[in-house]
Amino acid sequence: VVVYQNRSSSLLDEAFHWGYDEDCAAEEASEQRQINDMFGADESSVRLWESIREEHIQALYPPEDTSLVDHLENMASGALSVVTFKEKVSEFLAGLLSAYQPPLLIQLERGQVDGLSRKATKALKIRSGFLHQPMDET
Description:
The chain is mainly α. It is 57% helix and 0% strand. It starts with 9 loop residues before the first helix and ends in a 10-residue tail after the last helix.
């Protein structure tokens, strides 16, 4: 946590200090242990996480002629504003939704299941009870 009006960049290092702890003494099923294990999946993921962490730390360090507080306030009103954050989350969620097929019930309601013809979709709807089979007129 960055303490307001503290001008030390060492707080950034402390805020991003977390990562895999080989000597973690937390109980096996504890949340602390699960979080620690998340960072220690394998050597390549640990290196990847370290590079991502370093990239974010460097972005938060102020230029030499700017205090940490002023730099963070400038970022909070620009690149890290609440509005920008909301936009990025919305874009991420929209992208996530478009990457997957709609749930089966939605596809059935629309009359087309991915990978099935309309005729096969109609037959599935009838077999599953989603659509009542028309009575034969004899």
